[in-house]
Amino acid sequence: MSSSFSITLESEVRRTRWSSIDLLGREGVRRDNEDDDALFYRSVHKRPFFGDATDRAIRLHHARLIPAQAGRVLDLMSSLESHLAPQPGREVIGLGLNAEEMARNLELSSAIVHDLNRTSRLPFDDGAFDAVVCAGAIGLVTDPLELMRETARVLRPGGVFVVSFTDRMIQPKCIHAWRDNDNEGRIVLATAYFSFSGAFLRPQVELEELNAPGCVVGGPGAKIGDEQLTVVWGYRPPAPNAVQPRPDPLERLTVPSDRHCPWCGERMVMWQPPDTPWEMDYGVELLYVCFHDECPYFTRGAAWCRRNGMRCSSYRHSRNPATGTEGPLPVPTRWALRAGIVDEN
Prior knowledge:
By secondary structure, the chain is an alpha/beta fold. It folds into two domains: 2-235, Rossmann fold, CATH 3.40.50; 269-340, no CATH class. The chain is 21% helix and 20% strand. It is built from eight helices and twelve strands. The protein has an eight-stranded mixed sheet with strand order 1-7-8-6-5-2-3-4, sandwiched between helices. Strands 9-10-11-12 form a four-stranded antiparallel sheet, covered by helices on one side. Strand 11 (314-319) and strand 12 (326-331) form a beta hairpin. The chain starts with a strand and ends in a 14-residue tail after the last strand.
């Protein structure tokens, strides 16, 4: 399940050259582990940072956002995988800290060892690439706004920078502003990097709900999996062929009766609203309610509630059998309100 949106900030942010400290504060760009990054990342991992499900999802996003004719692609903070489908004649250059890991990356044409946290200046000429990707690593950058400007410099006009991330991270090396946020807060940060750099057109965002196993990297974040993939992209102007977020409407199904949910097709149950101590009035004595946990109406509602800071966990589709009126029934958890299901046998 995926959703999409774009971020608009006031034009004043482009009138001033912001630094990363201006945006995040000095504490925000600090890390728990300030040791030499080259030493920290010198050990070679045998398995990629992301699992198979996440890798497949990122590859699909890259394939849609990066034109097939893109001849040169840069993989920033590269490692064992670049999440790019092979294209005839395409050159993919990896920039990272571990030469052996990049040597094992069969998607790379060549690799350069470079510490972005020591030297933000990218070792490439202006306009050298058609596209740049950074998967799972943007939270590790200590000067993200300067990196954004450098990325725009090495992109050709109309080139795209694609940033992807989940809740999986290398916590000791993440800047505090990234580490201490939830996923929704990191979406705000990632889009702010594009906007406050002053180098890109308005960033676009797509979210995708994933069912992925827990993290294979040890440490404080080892039990955190890739529940939600976020992809943020922006273009170096001008970009007449910019890819927009995909429309993602929730489509009604043709169902056999008004007792069936129009979003998943499952038969709805008869539900009796509870008596509540706070005098909440549902306005009806009985409702048809879909309690199917895999219903797109319910799963998409959960994502929407998380993004918008709602107190409810999600909402379920309901229908008034007397009037035919349909609407959302907010639920604090997926198990809530089931006590009101009427036994019709």
